[in-house]
Amino acid sequence: MSLERRIEILEENMEQLRDVPARLTAVESQIGELRAEMGTGFSTLRDEIQAGDEALRTEMGEGHETLR
Length: 68
Fold this sequence. Notes:
The chain is mostly helical and about 70 residues long. The protein contains two helices and no strands. It has helices at about 5-15, 20-65. The termini are far apart. The mean pLDDT is about 95.
């Protein structure tokens, strides 16, 4: 392979790599957004589970009292 062709290949590769920093920044931003959304979702889910647990405990307590 000639030196000229090798330089052309190198230039083509460098051209493709030029966009990498911007793409990485976009991915970092998306990961940050995903983490925030997941945190909110998990908090909501935890609250719903706690509310369901409390309702179940109340219902079971009332059932226990009825059985007495």
